[in-house]
Amino acid sequence: MEYTNSQIRELIAEHIHNQDDRRMLSLRLIDGMSFEAIGFEVGMTTKTVRKRIHKGEEVLFRHIPG
């Protein structure tokens, strides 16, 4: 099933409680930014960004009906 950007934003807002993680997930899932670009944007290493986004995606995927 395809989700609209507004649906993805709602899922992120509802299930991701850390503000930085919400921003990074939005930049990745909605804006399609690379891990490297997100790291530059938020002032974190690419490794940290990748880890936090993957953890956030796991949370989101648990809440997607399927």
Assign an overall shape: globular
Number of helices: 4
Q: Which residue ranges are poorly predicted, with pLDDT under 50 across at least 5 consecutive positions?
A: none
Order of helix and strand elements from N to C terminus:
HHHH
| Assembly annotation | single chain
Q: What Rg do the Cα atoms give?
A: 11 Å
Mean pLDDT: 95
Strand fraction equals under 5%
Number of strands: 0
For the largest beta-sheet, the strand count, sense and barrel status come to:
none
Estimated structural class: mainly alpha
Euclidean distance between termini CA atoms: 8 Å
The helicity comes to: over 70%
Description:
The chain is mainly α. It contains four helices and no strands. It is globular and about 35 Å long. The protein starts with a helix and ends with a helix.
Short note summarizing the structure:
The chain has 66 residues and is mostly helical. It has helices spanning 5-15, 19-29, 35-42, 46-62.
Annotation keywords:
globular; 66 residues; mainly alpha; 0% strand; single chain; 4 helices
Secondary structure topology:
Blueprint: H1 5-15, H2 19-29, H3 35-42, H4 46-62
